[in-house]
Amino acid sequence: MSDVQAEVMTRDIPVPAVTVETKPFWDAAAEGRFLIKRCTGCGQAHWYPRALCPFCFSDKTVWEESPGEGVIYSYSIMRRSPTGPYGIGYVTLDEGPAVFTNFLGVAPEALSIGQRVKVRFQPTEGGPPVPAFAPV
What we know:
Blueprint: H1 3-6, H2 23-30, E1 34-39, E2 45-46, E3 61-66, E4 69-78, E5 86-93, E6 98-103, E7 116-122, E8 130-135
Antiparallel strand pairs: 1-2, 1-3, 4-5, 4-7, 5-6, 7-8
Protein backbone atom coordinates (compact mmCIF):
# COMPACT_ATOMS: atom_id res chain seq x y z
CA MET A 1 0.00 0.00 0.00
CA SER A 2 1.37 3.44 -0.90
CA ASP A 3 1.73 6.28 1.61
CA VAL A 4 -1.12 8.17 -0.07
CA GLN A 5 -3.48 5.21 0.35
CA ALA A 6 -2.36 4.76 3.96
CA GLU A 7 -3.23 8.36 4.83
CA VAL A 8 -6.69 8.66 3.32
CA MET A 9 -8.61 10.72 5.85
CA THR A 10 -11.53 9.22 7.71
CA ARG A 11 -13.26 10.45 10.80
CA ASP A 12 -16.08 9.35 13.09
CA ILE A 13 -18.66 12.14 13.12
CA PRO A 14 -20.97 12.59 16.11
CA VAL A 15 -24.74 12.35 15.67
CA PRO A 16 -26.11 15.80 14.76
CA ALA A 17 -28.78 17.53 16.81
CA VAL A 18 -32.01 17.33 14.82
CA THR A 19 -34.46 20.16 15.55
CA VAL A 20 -37.91 20.96 14.19
CA GLU A 21 -36.28 23.65 12.04
CA THR A 22 -33.59 21.33 10.56
CA LYS A 23 -35.53 18.04 10.35
CA PRO A 24 -36.29 18.41 6.59
CA PHE A 25 -32.55 18.77 5.95
CA TRP A 26 -31.67 15.62 7.94
CA ASP A 27 -34.55 13.64 6.39
CA ALA A 28 -33.20 14.54 2.93
CA ALA A 29 -29.65 13.65 4.00
CA ALA A 30 -30.89 10.18 4.99
CA GLU A 31 -32.11 9.87 1.37
CA GLY A 32 -28.74 11.08 0.00
CA ARG A 33 -30.03 14.54 -0.96
CA PHE A 34 -28.31 17.80 0.03
CA LEU A 35 -30.62 20.74 0.79
CA ILE A 36 -29.92 24.42 1.25
CA LYS A 37 -32.31 27.28 1.97
CA ARG A 38 -33.18 30.13 -0.39
CA CYS A 39 -34.98 33.33 0.52
CA THR A 40 -37.86 34.17 -1.81
CA GLY A 41 -37.72 37.75 -0.53
CA CYS A 42 -34.17 38.65 -1.59
CA GLY A 43 -33.29 35.57 -3.67
CA GLN A 44 -30.14 34.69 -1.69
CA ALA A 45 -29.22 31.06 -0.99
CA HIS A 46 -27.87 30.46 2.49
CA TRP A 47 -26.27 27.89 4.73
CA TYR A 48 -26.75 26.77 7.59
CA PRO A 49 -30.45 26.09 6.86
CA ARG A 50 -32.63 28.23 9.12
CA ALA A 51 -36.08 29.77 9.02
CA LEU A 52 -34.98 33.43 8.80
CA CYS A 53 -32.86 34.71 5.95
CA PRO A 54 -29.49 35.93 7.30
CA PHE A 55 -29.36 38.62 4.59
CA CYS A 56 -32.76 40.34 4.83
CA PHE A 57 -34.33 38.60 7.88
CA SER A 58 -37.36 37.52 5.87
CA ASP A 59 -39.21 34.42 7.02
CA LYS A 60 -39.98 33.55 3.39
CA THR A 61 -37.37 30.82 2.95
CA VAL A 62 -37.76 27.58 1.02
CA TRP A 63 -35.82 24.34 0.84
CA GLU A 64 -33.92 23.78 -2.39
CA GLU A 65 -32.05 20.67 -3.49
CA SER A 66 -28.41 21.34 -4.32
CA PRO A 67 -26.01 19.12 -6.26
CA GLY A 68 -23.61 19.81 -3.38
CA GLU A 69 -20.75 20.90 -5.61
CA GLY A 70 -18.29 23.72 -5.09
CA VAL A 71 -14.67 24.66 -4.48
CA ILE A 72 -12.45 24.58 -1.42
CA TYR A 73 -12.11 28.11 -0.08
CA SER A 74 -9.91 27.25 2.91
CA TYR A 75 -8.88 24.15 4.82
CA SER A 76 -6.74 22.85 7.64
CA ILE A 77 -5.39 19.38 8.34
CA MET A 78 -5.63 18.23 11.95
CA ARG A 79 -2.72 15.85 12.39
CA ARG A 80 -2.77 15.42 16.17
CA SER A 81 -5.76 13.15 16.40
CA PRO A 82 -5.94 9.70 18.01
CA THR A 83 -7.68 8.43 14.86
CA GLY A 84 -5.24 9.91 12.36
CA PRO A 85 -5.29 13.10 10.31
CA TYR A 86 -8.52 14.70 9.22
CA GLY A 87 -9.37 17.81 7.22
CA ILE A 88 -11.83 20.58 7.95
CA GLY A 89 -12.54 23.79 6.09
CA TYR A 90 -14.89 25.88 4.01
CA VAL A 91 -16.41 24.95 0.66
CA THR A 92 -18.05 27.66 -1.43
CA LEU A 93 -21.04 26.00 -3.06
CA ASP A 94 -21.85 26.77 -6.69
CA GLU A 95 -25.04 28.45 -5.41
CA GLY A 96 -22.94 30.87 -3.33
CA PRO A 97 -23.06 29.89 0.35
CA ALA A 98 -19.95 28.79 2.21
CA VAL A 99 -20.24 25.51 4.14
CA PHE A 100 -17.97 24.61 7.06
CA THR A 101 -17.29 20.91 6.59
CA ASN A 102 -15.06 17.86 6.87
CA PHE A 103 -13.00 16.49 3.99
CA LEU A 104 -13.02 12.70 3.84
CA GLY A 105 -11.79 9.89 1.65
CA VAL A 106 -8.75 11.79 0.41
CA ALA A 107 -5.10 12.03 1.43
CA PRO A 108 -4.24 15.29 3.25
CA GLU A 109 -1.69 16.22 0.57
CA ALA A 110 -4.33 15.82 -2.17
CA LEU A 111 -6.38 18.86 -1.02
CA SER A 112 -5.86 22.32 -2.46
CA ILE A 113 -7.60 25.69 -2.36
CA GLY A 114 -9.78 26.14 -5.43
CA GLN A 115 -10.19 22.38 -5.89
CA ARG A 116 -13.61 21.11 -7.03
CA VAL A 117 -15.40 18.98 -4.44
CA LYS A 118 -18.75 17.25 -4.08
CA VAL A 119 -20.81 16.35 -1.06
CA ARG A 120 -20.64 12.81 0.33
CA PHE A 121 -22.75 11.70 3.26
CA GLN A 122 -20.84 10.28 6.22
CA PRO A 123 -22.75 7.81 8.41
CA THR A 124 -23.12 8.51 12.13
CA GLU A 125 -23.92 6.08 14.94
CA GLY A 126 -27.69 6.04 15.27
CA GLY A 127 -28.44 9.35 13.57
CA PRO A 128 -28.74 10.80 10.10
CA PRO A 129 -25.66 10.97 7.89
CA VAL A 130 -23.82 14.29 7.81
CA PRO A 131 -22.49 16.08 4.74
CA ALA A 132 -18.74 15.97 4.14
CA PHE A 133 -16.88 16.77 0.94
CA ALA A 134 -14.39 14.94 -1.28
CA PRO A 135 -12.60 15.91 -4.50
CA VAL A 136 -14.59 15.29 -7.68
